[in-house]
Design brief:
- The protein has 438 residues and is of the alpha/beta class.
- The chain contains 14 helices and 16 strands.
- It is globular and about 75 Å long.
- The relative contact order is 0.10.
- The mean pLDDT is 93.
């Protein structure tokens, strides 16, 4: 018997109908033994996610706003599912504990984590699987950083006691105190990957409401082709530019153990989805694996004669934005120039202070700022073995009247970053897609 670990997102556990679907999925394959679940998501566009309701619940309690009715609303979400499916559970006891902890002034992390906790308790009863709480198994240091190896040891030892189990995603506990610590939103993906590693899984199936990844954003490109297989490193490049259905940290535990990740659709389980592996796919004939991009970047350009002769010049420039608490995305350089490409939102009201500090410390001959720049990432492992990819991109854009403001290829040669004016962003994405997929 093999081992498959499954994670179901909020839309997959939103109501009784969705739980029937996941039960059919799990029971269709005896290798599907460990299940990680999120809190119930929206049942319709006008509905609320349980996690959002729990954040609101804690805020009301902290501000002496009557909160009992909201707790009742949350309770009804779970009891309605249990009643419709005929599940025998101890939800009353679990909600009494939450009520008591709220009166004692418990942490926000504890309250919010109850979404996944209750979801896992309910689904384990529905499936007849063991319920395994992750609070004592997934460990964080006091700064909230995941203790990967400690977590793996604890999870591995616990899973060995259970043939089949349901685990809540999104949270663990602090080393020492054991208090609840949350991942960032979407962190149930990370829990699933950690469980897959600890279980020595053959595959980690991440079930959501889309049938895998597409080669481009369908809101920009009409009917983009699906990505059947992709490497972890290609996924990382695309997800950095926003094209991901996975929490970005979910890749690493599975990658460490060379466990494939399969993105699947709960509402269309017959679709094969996207498989993410260390090697990707060298047989599909496609030069590029995907295109992703984001508008709203600002470029700070610095020019100084003989810059390359000043030791530490780039370091001093980066120190200025580091001290301002601003991350940068790219730093194209020349002999006498450097540019810092930064998301406009990260600069906020800091731009003038940053410019003043750069002038003071670097004494440039010239400094300029250009906003409304969009970046497009063209990603593919085969690009390094295919002559003329950059030339095709530049030629296609030029023939369609789009001016390239920046072109940067990483040393790994699996991505080319193209900078264009924000007004040309969607047109440029379509042109590049058509160039390689026509």
């Amino acid at each position: 018997m093999g081992v498959k670990v499954l994670k179901f997102g909020g839309s997959s556990v939103a109501d009784a109908g969705q739980l029937r679907k996941i039960k059919n999925i799990i029971e269709s394959d005896p290798d599907r033994r460990y299940v990680v679940v999120s809190a119930p998501g929206k049942r319709s566009s006008s509905d609320s996610k349980v996690t959002d309701l729990l954040f609101m619940l804690k805020a009301q309690a902290d501000n002496n706003i009557p909160w009992e009715s909201l707790l009742g609303v949350i309770r009804d979400r779970y009891t309605s599912i249990a009643d419709e499916l005929g599940i025998e559970t101890d939800l009353d006891e679990r909600f009494e504990e939450i009520r008591a902890r709220l009166r004692e002034g418990c942490s926000e992390a504890y309250v919010v984590s109850r979404g996944e906790y209750l979801s896992a308790a309910l689904i384990s009863a529905y499936l007849g699987y063991d319920f395994v709480d992750t609070q004592s198994l997934i460990r964080f240091d006091q700064k909230g950083r995941l203790l990967t190896e400690e977590t793996n040891v604890r999870l591995k030892a616990e899973l060995a006691k259970h043939e089949r189990a349901v685990l809540p995603g999104f949270y663990g506990g602090y080393e020492g105190s054991g208090d609840v610590c949350l991942f960032s939103r979407g962190g149930s993906d990370v829990t699933g990957s950690l469980v897959a590693r600890a279980a020595d899984a053959d595959i980690y199936e991440n079930w959501t409401d889309v049938s895998g990844m597409l080669m481009a954003d369908p809101r920009i490109v009409k009917d983009p082709a699906p990505i059947e297989r992709i490497s972890y490193i290609e996924l990382r490049e695309l997800s950095y530019m926003g094209a991901s259905v996975l929490h970005e940290e979910a890749v690493f535990p599975a990658r460490m153990s060379d466990i494939p990740i399969n993105i699947r659709n709960t509402n269309a389980p017959e679709d094969p989805g996207t498989v993410i592996t260390n090697s990707g796919d060298d047989e599909d004939g496609k030069v590029i694996s995907g295109i992703a991009g984001k508008p709203d970047f600002t470029v700070i350009s610095i020019y100084k004669n003989m810059m390359n002769r000043e030791i530490g010049y780039v370091r001093r420039a980066l120190t200025v934005i580091e001290e301002a608490g601003i991350p940068f995305d790219h730093i194209p350089t020349g002999i006498d120039s450097l540019s810092m490409v930064i998301e406009t939102s990260a600069l906020e009201d800091k731009l003038n202070d940053v410019l003043d500090e750069l002038k003071l410390r670097l004494k440039p001959d010239e400094i300029s700022v250009e906003d409304n720049i969009a970046l497009i990432a063209v990603v593919g492992r085969k690009m390094s073995r295919t002559p003329g990819v950059a030339a095709r991109i530049c030629s296609a854009l030029a023939q369609n009247g789009i001016n390239i403001r920046m072109l940067n290829q990483g040393t790994s040669e699996i991505n080319i970053i193209v900078g264009v004016e924000a007004k040309d962003f969607e047109k440029a994405v379509n042109i590049i897609y058509s160039e390689f997929m026509a």
